[in-house]
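Customer ticket, subject: "Can you confirm the structure for Iron ABC transporter ATP-binding protein?"

Message body: Hello, I'm evaluating your service for our small team and ran a test protein. I'd like someone to confirm that this is what the system normally returns, since I don't have a reference to compare against.
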Amino acid sequence: MRESKNSYKSQITVNELSWKPTKDHKNILEKINITFDKGNIYGIIGPNGSGKTSFIKNLLHFVEPDKGNIMIEDVNLLDYRRKDLAKKIALVPQNTTMDSSFLVYDVVMMGRVPYQKRFAEASQSDIDIVTEAMILTDCYSFKDKEVDMLSGGEAQRVLTARAIAQDTEWLILDEPTASLDVKHQIELMESLVKLKKHKNKTIITVLHDINIAATYCNQIIMMKDGKVHSHGKTEEVLTKDKLREVYEINFEILDNMKNGKKYYIPYTCD
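Agent reply: Thanks for trying us out. I re-ran your input and got the following:
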């Protein structure tokens, strides 16, 4: 795919997206319409089975929609060559399995592959970008460690570093905090805020923890039953009524005096 010399919209637009894994299966995603604008951190939340990961797979062209389309900068996602798409969007997957024959440094350097000629050695620019990504994710100290010796949390940080090293405008993460301890959850989310602020990255991340989403995401997409239930500014989406409709449980919302954000506590009524 050749990049147009004309001006383009710096956004991802999802139009009437529906998807199912097989022809005889019911739709997992149903008529999704949403636009991702540059310069935001989007948190995708919702109960298990609401379609969050399936939505991510469609955004990355791991699967093809049954209906509708996804436009990236005014170009249909299906028209992108894989290498060109890898220069636009990077992924931090939920599955942290990696080939055990690689060292941590080698895995992070793989993020530079879309920019390298075949069999070419890493340039100084590649080395600098990889080093910066590893420092940002706190994994430079074990860069020479074999990946099969990593803990789940360490592996998650390495894959995040690889995605950052890919140096794309868009960064997609599928439950990046799931295998991290509390300290590294906070450090990871703060590193994403820095990427948005200082590197002009746009972040789209699936999250299970509503409080992490409320603290670090300025835009929320809340899904239920394969549909977007509501989306918009965090404080407008995360209301008691909307949370109850989606999660089928009550929430108490408190003011967090430390950071000026809201804190969400689920509860049941006897």
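A couple of notes from the result: The CA atoms of residues 98 and 147 lie 7 Å apart. The chain has nine helices and twelve strands. Feel free to reply with more questions.
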